[in-house]
From TrEMBL:
Residues 1-20 form the signal peptide. This is Uncharacterized protein. Residues 83-103 have a biased composition (Pro residues). Keywords: Signal. It comes from the Bacteria. It comes from Roseateles saccharophilus (Pseudomonas saccharophila). Residues 37-103 are annotated as: Disordered.
Length: 168
C-alpha cells in the first residue's frame, strides 16, 4: 500500500481538527440550549397536574398589549364589513397627444443646388432636404438658418429643431 504524501497528511490533520472543533462547539451549544430551555429548578420527574395547565400560557401572556384596531379597509379585506365605494371623482381629460422628441440632432446645413440638412444621432447620420421623410415618421417641411421645421406624421404635429450649438 502506498504511503500518504505530506500534503495528504496535512489535509487529514486539518480535517480532524475541524471535526474536533465542530464537535466541541456543538456540545457547548447543546449544553447552553438545554440550560436555557429548562432551568434546573423547573425540572421535575412527576407529570404536571391539570390545574397548572389551566393557567397556561401563564402570567407573561396577560402582560401583552391588545392587538391594534383595524381600519375599515383592512376589515373589508377580510370580509367583515363592506366598504363604501370611493367617492366619484371628476375624470380629468387626458392631455393632448404630443410628438416625441426628434431622434436626431441638426448638425449643419449644405446649400448646393437646394438646401439640405445634416442630421446625426448615435446610430446614424443623414443628409435630408425639404420634403424628405426621416425614419418613416418625420417629414422635413423647411430648412431654415436656425434649424428644421418638421412634422410628426402619425399625429400631424409640427415641431422645430434648432441648430446644434458647439459646447463650450
Amino acid at each position: 500500500m502506498k504511503r500518504p504524501s505530506p500534503r495528504q497528511l496535512a489535509l487529514f490533520g486539518a480535517l480532524g481538527l475541524s471535526l474536533a472543533a465542530t464537535l466541541w462547539v456543538s456540545r457547548d451549544d447543546e449544553a447552553d440550549t438545554a440550560a436555557v430551555a429548562r432551568p434546573r429548578h423547573a425540572i421535575s420527574a412527576t407529570p404536571t397536574p391539570a390545574s397548572a395547565m389551566a393557567d397556561w400560557p401563564g402570567p407573561a401572556a396577560s402582560a401583552r398589549a391588545d392587538w391594534p384596531a383595524l381600519d375599515p379597509q383592512a376589515r373589508a379585506a377580510w370580509g367583515e364589513t363592506p366598504l363604501a365605494p370611493p367617492p366619484a371623482q371628476a375624470e380629468a381629460a387626458p392631455p393632448p397627444p404630443s410628438a416625441p422628441p426628434f431622434p436626431y440632432q441638426f448638425v449643419g446645413r449644405m446649400t448646393d443646388s437646394r438646401p439640405r440638412a445634416v442630421l446625426n444621432n448615435a446610430q446614424r447620420s443623414a443628409v435630408v432636404a425639404a420634403g424628405d421623410v426621416v425614419d418613416g415618421q418625420w417629414r422635413v417641411d423647411a430648412i431654415e438658418a436656425g434649424g428644421l421645421r418638421l412634422t410628426y406624421l402619425p399625429l400631424g404635429l409640427a415641431q422645430f429643431v434648432s441648430f446644434a450649438r458647439p459646447s463650450a
